Amino acid sequence: MVLGDYADTLTGARQKMLKQRSRAMLGGLVKRLQSIRWEWNISTRNEYYYHSSQFKKQYELGLESAEGGGQWAYYSQGVGASNYAYELAANGRARLAALWADRAVAAWGNFFRIKDNYYNAYVHYALALGILGRAKEMESALTRSAELSGKPESYREFREVRKKAAKLRGEKFFKK
User: Fold this and answer.
1) What is the pLDDT along the chain (176 residues), one digit of tens a residue?
2) Residue 173: partners with Cβ closer than 8 Å, 6 or more residues away
3) Is the pTM of this model over 0.85?
4) Cα(176)–Cα(28) distance, rounded to whole angstroms?
5) Contact between 97 and 89 (Cβ < 8 Å)
6) Within a 13 Å sphere around the CA of 80, how many CA atoms are in the beta-carbon half?
7) Among 2, 42, 51, 153, which is least packed by CB within 10 angstroms?
8) Domains of the chain
9) What letter would DSSP give residue 69?
């Protein structure tokens, strides 16, 4: 997980190589975790789906986790649905993307009732809002994320959300 997260801070061939290595390690763990604690299995699968860009499966894992009483079920649903919505939108499937972005917003609403002080949740929430064209709410979510994390508004993750939203709207991205 840490290797995959670190790879997200890089670009080019090194990022690709480290991301691939992270996926391989997480994939191997998923296969070996069948008999361990349910929560660890869910957590590892969540990371594997995220780092291997299997966002629909990540959302479905969140549904599975919710059925089992998992505390972070809505987080998996929100991250998965937000990123799957972006994937669909980037491929020109705007109506389906909006449906998934709405699912993400609903999942985030549930998550924030449980835990409203985790900065990363607001990053993915902002992405869903950006896909829906709710730019002011997207910026508010990014501001909340910056406040919680102590990171500047120009932080890499925040810029990436803005860049993705601008691309979907056909706008030129301006760094903040």
Assistant:
1) 655 666 677 688 888 877 777 777 767 666 666 666 556 678 888 988 999 999 999 999 999 999 888 888 999 999 999 999 999 999 999 999 999 999 999 999 999 999 999 999 999 999 999 999 999 999 999 999 999 999 999 999 999 999 999 999 886 544 44
2) 162, 163, 166, 167
3) no
4) 39
5) yes
6) 25
7) 2
8) 1-52 (no CATH), 56-176 (1.25.40)
9) T
